[in-house]
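User: Please predict structures.

Assistant: First:
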Amino acid sequence: MRRWVNHRADGTTCTYVGIVTSYRQGKKVYQKPVCQLGRLDRLQKTGQIDKLIQGLARFSRKRWVVADELTHNESPKE
């Protein structure tokens, strides 16, 4: 993932996110955009960023746990 900050003429900025692939040419490392996801603020506001992460996690070889799913197994001390 990579983010790009766009500075507008009116002084405001927008942050965009996308998926990149990294590769090396000689001693230099480059990143090539694979997919542009959109404006970060809009993706966060609509919940789309979380949906993207959950969707991609299905294809991962590792188990991803959502913080809301965690429960504390500790009993209260009396």
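Second:
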Amino acid sequence: MMLRNYRLRQFRSRWGQPGQAMFELALLVPVLCLVMFSIIEYSRVMNFEQELVDITRQGCNLASRGTALSTAATTIAQNSGSLNLSNSGLVIITSVARVGSADQVTGQATSGSLSQTSKIGNGVGSRATVPANIDDIFSNNSGQTVYITEVFYPLQQITPVAKMWGLVLPSTLYQVAYF
């Protein structure tokens, strides 16, 4: 009998109060969910960004090798793999040249179903907005054409991390490449 009481006391002293484990679990579950959901969403966004980088480079590569802009945009949108840009995204391929002292859109083609406007310029003959390093190319190499591929892709969250913690994530991912 004495041995049995000793073992019972030893068991109780190891595990503390009966509700302690449940209380600790209740404290840790939200933190663990936040970490897990954050890792999932961040990983998805990083994967999408990598795919968009590859797609923009392929678009510029096609356009710079002489493929018609409309053909290049359609090819990129149709062969975008799991992103399915033909149905859920937008590819814009633009050619820009320096005309006089201003950068001007000399050609533009789009493919996809999103309704977004180019951040470079809209329509042939319109003024183009390009980064400073592209200005350097035009300054040092007259008569050059720069091909720019922009890709827009809607981000749909699969975890409740933004709602749980009040985070604001972008609704559309954007990637651009210059050749």
